[in-house]
Design brief:
With 710 residues, the chain is α+β, with helices and mostly antiparallel strands. The chain is 56% helix and 8% strand. The chain is built from 26 helices and 15 strands. Strands 3, 4, 5, 6 and 8 form a 5-stranded antiparallel beta sheet that branches. Strand 14 and strand 15 form a beta hairpin. Helix 3 (112-126) packs across helix 5, helix 5 (141-152) packs across helix 14 (439-449) and helix 20 packs across helix 26 (677-707). It is elongated and about 115 Å long. The model is unreliable at 1-58, 430-436 and 661-672 (pLDDT under 50).
Length: 710
Amino acid sequence: FWLVEVWKMEGAFVFHPAVPVHRRGLPNVSRKGRRFVGPVAVHVSGQRHVRSQRPEPAAELPLRYDASAINRYWNSRLGEMTERWKYFLGLAVPFGTKVLQNFTAGTLRANEAELARDLRDILEKMGPTFVKLGQVLSIRPDIVGEVAMKELQGLQDAVRPFPNEEAFQVIEEELGVPPGEIFTNISPEPVAAASLAQVYKAQLKSSGQWVAIKVQRPGLLPIVTKDLYVMKKAAEWNQSFMTRFTKQRTDYVALLEAWAVGFYQELDFGTEANNQIRFAESVKNSQIVGVKVPQVYSELCSRRLLVTEWVNGSPLSNALPSEVRRLTKVGSQAFLTQLLDFGVFHGDPHGGNLLAVEESEELCILDYGLMANVPQNDKDLMVSAIIHLANKDFDGLTDDLISLKFLPETINRPKVQGVMKRVLTPYVTQGGGAKSFNVNSLISDMTSALLEIEFSIPPHYALVGRALITLEGIALIGNPSYKMVMEAYPFVADRILSENDSPKLRKALTEILYKNDEFSVARLLVLVNAALGNIATESDSFVSLDSLPTNASSLEDVVRFVCGDNAEAIREALLPEVIDAIDLLLRRETARSVGVLQASLPGIMIEPLAKVLKVDAVTKSCHLTNAEQVYLSSLVDFVSQATGISVNDILANPVGGLASELLQIGRFGSTMPRIEGKERATLLSMGERVAKGVASKAVDRWVSIYQDDH
């Protein structure tokens, strides 16, 4: 016999002689636009496999999302679309008519809950593709509104499993051999089933390792693409309606396209396997601890088959409150690290995808089909937006939202800032601080603002919002006072302090440290404490930039952080302020010394000596303005609290007392931290730069005094 292998190679058939090899599956093949899986009978290892002679209907459907290809395919098969259109319109037209009637009667708001239930019912009846779309809409307040959003969050993806025979046939087609040649002890029924796939538990014959076998539902591609074709037409109709009758400017067609790309990727388990491997490598190379990513058996994975390590555990949403509290912190840190450091994050961290591992007490993250990428520029903009919100800088926040594509560039800025100030101010000034800040309630209140301003949410930020809400919802099971912002702020603070190459983050750092155009030492300490994980919850702000926490970090921890490898940005910002502060002390000391000298000299000597020493010019150049005196006073108070040196001692002998202490780094005595190693070298280097800066200012001042005579 001949083993006939038909490859899709420039539209030609290529025949190869029979060879005793096993293939991991048959490739997609086509001739004149049709795929055939028969009539061919082949002998492999003595077994005869007969495949169907009928052409497979998915022959011309793309394996990567291509709207044009999908349109061409179903436009040429309008007869096959008839039943789907009849079913869709049979549900959509009565619903649309009902919405229009309520709209014209002015009862849309009053009957919103009923309409939301109808919408959910329609999506569930339409099947898996529409259910998936509904789950995405459940995090889009800019599209469906708050009531419908909450109703859609209850959409169920659970379906009846398909027969084992069909599942095992898919496994054999993908691996090229019967399942029994690779696996043993396969579970008699699937352990989990959803609209796209179902999962079996089994052992590898080669190693005895227990694995999870995720098998895609047969014939899924024609079903999904048919629904995407219908959805796109519906989105185009909806776009016209919303543009004409509302202020929303969300591009529904673009939104659908973006979602379809991601959804299509979920149909390719090979992509999911690669996502999982990349995620595991990122976790391994990061500071994330307590997270388990199941091993992927790449040699057994394909577009319709995913084989990974089996993990014994229970869904986090079903765990004990104490377990939820412990693992939620791990999950939050993992997600925020993905978002702000990796730039690639898990887009679907719901309770079923987060397992409390029995053996290791780790958090296991499952299902990597839906991953989203956040560009570096957007990561920086998110951090900048949080800082502008904390600073109540709504003008800067508007700039961030425009850059992030939440707002159009042509937006009415005064109107937007007025709406944001009204909606967001309660979150940045409310009593209870971060303890009363809730992501879900913020999104709910933002929904009301959509009625007044043009606003849209880019697709990957919808996923971010969904992940935040989901994680916070799970965390509340174990800790009713949990707030995601408490977990996020240390990451934000650390990013601002450690990022040296981002102009946006350097600008954000400047905006924090300079309050009313004056450098704030207190804010510096607050920011460093936040980066070290200590946040004030007693203030009246969701994130206070001016209140130190009651459990503030020790001076030694602060100095070590500032001298660390990742704090170059804060050192560069701090350097000129330290130079100016010491210069202020020297000017004050010089003016005081001149006064003492004049008071101690006999009257007959004062005038000639003052002329030679240019006492008037020196006194004038060393005079402190009222603003400088206030700044110096606050600085001295801070230094006194930080070092234990009394205010009187600092003011009485600033050079011999404070300056000498600061310059003898590493020998601070009992009141100052002992800094060793690399941090000490960094601090010494900074001290040298400070000394040079102070000397340069002094020299410039004296040169200016004596040059005025000439």
